[in-house]
Amino acid sequence: MTAQISFAIGMSLIVLFSLVPAVLILVISFTDIRSLPYLPTRFVGVENYLTFFSSAQIGYNLSALKNTFVFAFAVTFFQNVIALFIAVLLNQRLVGRNFARAVVFLPTILGVTVIGLIFSLIFNPSAGPAAELWAAFGQSSAFFGDPNLAMALVIFVQVWSGIGVAVVIYLAGLQAIPPELYEVADIDGATNWQKLRNVTIPLLAPSVTANTLLCIIGALQSYQLIYVLTGPINPATQVLSLAIFTQGFGGAQGGTVQSQGYAAAISIVQFVIVAIISLATLAYLRSKETAL
């Protein structure tokens, strides 16, 4: 009975705080609701969606979509590769490894504003450490203001800020692998690379799946660091989530008047994209788990 009550309470909270807002966003996407007071709200059908795919907006939205994919897949790839390397290293019997684990996890507990401030100071084009290092080679850069460099720097900061959680997940997976398997591999004369390829990675597949899904879903919806580091109107780092924020709360972008209805329509488009990519990624990784 207690379990049933707990389940009912949990489901009620999920419906209240997840399903109901999602349905309301869908409803709002069919209206022209705006933040200005005393304006009547009208039902406009699919007009917001037609605006998103219209010739006037398609260039801006495709650019934001391209930046979203570049950001998400680059962050997912580099964060998982680096996190796996660090986790394998920290899983060894090293002096001070607990301190090293704490240092690796530290960026996770910092807020977005703190991280943004830290890297804004580091990459300050006037007097930051990066600018001084650049100047030592006779070079200068605007860093986050450089359209050729801004996205790469934002990806770097995003990977740095989120790598702690990925390392913890990989460490948990590594510690669940029976040490006897490595002993058998040593007896067979396996090299470190062969043990990684034939023992560690196959048994770590569930952790890879969890990390990849968490990372790619989070990155596809991320905009906070981009907003703090490069602002809301930098074309080089404009992503779909940031377009939703600026349309709904931070001022009109891409030639349209600020509208919560249009922002809701973009969020529904983003939801569909994230769902398709997530489900396709999950299916692919599950098939790979089976193959391994």
From TrEMBL:
Native source organism of the sequence: Propioniciclava soli
InterPro entries for this protein: ABC_transporter_permease, MetI-like, MetI-like_sf
Annotated keywords: Cell membrane, Membrane, Transmembrane, Transmembrane helix, Transport
Protein family: Belongs to the binding-protein-dependent transport system permease family.
Protein name (database record): Sugar ABC transporter permease
Chief location of this protein within or outside the cell: membrane
PROSITE patterns: ABC_TM1
ABC transmembrane type-1 domain boundaries: 65-281
Membrane association type: Multi-pass membrane protein
Ranges annotated as spanning the membrane: 7-30, 69-90, 102-123, 149-172, 262-285
SUPFAM superfamilies: MetI-like (SSF161098)
A UniProt-annotated Pfam family: BPD_transp_1
Subcellular location(s) of the protein: Cell membrane
Keyword field contains Ligase: no
Coiled coil: none
